[in-house]
Amino acid sequence: MSNTASRDSDEMMTKGNKQHLEDQVDLSDESQHGHVSKYLYGILGWSAFSSFAFGFSGACIGGVLVQPSFAVYFAELANLNEITGMVSIYHAGGVFGVLTSSYVSDRWGRKISFLYGSAFYIVGAIIMSAAVNLHMLLVGRLIIGWGAYGFLISAQTYAVELAPARSRGLLGSINGLALEVGYITAGWISVALVHFKDPMDNMSWRTPFILQFVPVVLLLAGYKFVPESPRWLVTQGRSAEALEVLTDIHASPVDPRGHFSAREHKQIVAQYDLDKTLPSSWISMFTTYRRRSLCAILIMWSFLLGGDYFLATYGPQLFTAFGFSTEKSLIYQAAWLTLLILNFGVAPLMDRAGRKASCLLAHHGDGLYAPGASAFVAMFMIYMLFLCTTEPPTYLLCCEIFPLHVRTKGTAIAYATLGITNTWTLEAAATMVAELKWKVFICFSAANVVALIVFIPETRNVPLEEMAAIFGEEDQVALREKDIMLDN
């Protein structure tokens, strides 16, 4: 009798322990690695409007420059220096945009930084659309560049901080993909508008400037329906709100207790408790975090010196230099921009093959060139077939490698590099096109020799809170994901 009671007691204890362990850790894959809900896709789709705005506003000027009516209206742009100044001033404004947006993002929140960028973007778009002289156009380009680059840092930081580690490659690439769609849209709109044959019809060049408003209107319309970044909420001592956001964005029928959200929340809080004891000044970005900052700068340089920003802006002029008509030049431009759709295939691979493999694939086509006009077009398409897959991994890497308390500063350094490098390369680019023509590819390809294998870290499936370990800073990781246990 006593043996039977003992066995029953042991069975009950075993079941109780098993249930306790199940309460502690749900063993389903989604509770371990995070569920990507439709709500999360919707949130990141909303933020992608800002990236589309960046891509469209940056690329539309390329088609506008070759519109016959634009050349007639702004006859003073015959001076090459004035043309390059109008192009590069957008990126000069962007340098101020990313540096100030990083402060706004840390001080008032990731969401507020979208409003900050929108204010500058709308003012710049208004001035450009109403421009009656070159000075108005220059001022408008400067201001819209300020806002557009502000969007870039806001959207990428927001996406990285919402995405679970195992899906961050795909989700963190959504903004890069939206940026590419902005390029494509600008290219084909320029093709459509070239059919305005009347050189006195100013709508052929004003229309792209007016259309710059569309993505920002959609962004503002959805603003109140999206949450604040849970990681920013933790930095403000609003831990309970952060857990609510995490629970909402990772809600899943197979993880009804929200174990993944609770585990991620616990890791974020523990890591920030450590992070806030570490240096966080701008000086520390070049001392304590110098390796990460250098890594971000070199990754961005390698991407930029591949030449796609140059080609997105001056592509139509490059084709025109080969003797193609304005219409054909714009069609070829729109065609290579359409190759950017390939990024939709590359983005999902970043969570499988990794960031480094994606970047190396993209640069595999660098160095191709050919002197003949027909051969040039073929070479151009092959070159872009590879190069056009670089943007999503580049923008993602330059943001995710930094710790929470200095993430916007580190990302700002990377994107300021983007603006500064674009400013001087695009300032010189028109002269390069006029003098070198196809040989300009040799210059960009030769410059694109930054040590990709050495400097690109592999961040696939690594939680943001464990990124320090990749840089040999094991003592700056407060709690590893695999070590997290939850109480019942």
Q: Short summary of the structure?
A:
With 488 residues, the protein is an all-alpha fold.
Can you walk me through this structure?
The chain is mainly α and 488 residues long. The protein contains 24 helices and no strands. Helix 3 runs parallel beside helix 9, helix 9 runs antiparallel to helix 10 (203-211) and helix 16 runs parallel beside helix 22 (407-436). It is elongated.
How would you describe the shape?
A: elongated
How does the helix and strand content classify structurally? mainly alpha
Calculate the terminal CA-CA distance, rounded to whole Å.
34 Å
Number of strands: 0
Order of helices and strands: HHHHHHHHHHHHHHHHHHHHHHHH
Unreliable spans: 4-28, 364-372
Rg: 25 Å
What can be said about the biggest beta sheet? Answer: none
Helix content: 55-70%
Q: Give the rounded overall mean pLDDT.
A: 80
Percent strand equals under 5%
Helical segment count: 24
Write the layout of secondary structure elements.
Elements: H1 2-24, H2 29-33, H3 38-65, H4 68-73, H5 80-108, H6 110-129, H7 134-162, H8 168-171, H9 174-193, H10 203-211, H11 213-221, H12 230-235, H13 239-249, H14 259-275, H15 290-304, H16 308-321, H17 326-338, H18 343-346, H19 355-362, H20 373-387, H21 391-400, H22 407-436, H23 440-447, H24 452-455
Helix pairs in contact: 3-7, 3-9, 3-10, 3-11, 3-16, 5-6, 5-7, 5-22, 6-7, 6-10, 6-11, 7-21, 7-22, 9-10, 9-17, 9-21, 13-14, 15-21, 15-22, 16-17, 16-22, 17-20, 21-22
